[in-house]
Design goal:
156 residues, alpha+beta, 6-stranded mixed sheet
């Protein structure tokens, strides 16, 4: 077990989850995801895309605390207690994106057998990337990895 694996296991034992943060690069925006929510609480792991790494880490920890207290964040639902004054939408991440996004989780779980939901944040007018009038920079900065049906029409 290397240092990263040991830290993941230690955080899961202590807190119930670990957060992986991935820097933006030429292939896409920064993102962060949890490892351990499924193992510890049988709750889907959480993905968030396109905000600052520390902000995404805090959001995942906020969600993790809620999950630890018994709350479930479900595909297709919106929740107003994550970002002050804004609802976040949750969408199931399709397994076809797992290898692209979740290398450490795949290693930890020994395969692709774990669910993930993406926490999707709105623009200032409370529109999501799949909404027709959503701010273009939100669409650019926040890729979504769910089925087109739950994302709405392809407006890119």
């Amino acid at each position: 077990m290397d240092e990263v694996d040991a830290k993941i296991v230690s955080d899961i034992e202590e807190h119930g989850w670990h957060v992986i943060k991935v820097f933006a690069d030429e292939s896409g925006p920064a993102f962060a995801y949890s490892i351990g929510l499924f193992q510890t609480f049988r709750h889907p792991e959480i993905l968030i895309v396109g905000l600052g790494l520390d902000t995404m880490h805090r959001i995942i920890n906020t969600i993790g605390i809620e999950v630890k207290q018994g709350k479930t964040f479900r595909d297709g639902c919106q929740y107003g207690d994550i970002l002050d004054g804004y609802e976040c939408a949750f969408r199931e991440v399709l397994p076809e994106y797992y290898r692209e996004l979740f290398g450490c989780a795949i290693s930890h779980y020994g395969g692709l057998d774990f669910p993930v939901v993406q926490c999707v944040w709105p623009d200032r007018e409370r529109r999501f990337p799949w909404d027709r009038d959503c701010a273009p920079q939100i669409r650019r900065d926040q890729r979504t990895y769910s089925a087109p049906a739950s994302n709405g029409p392809d407006l890119s």
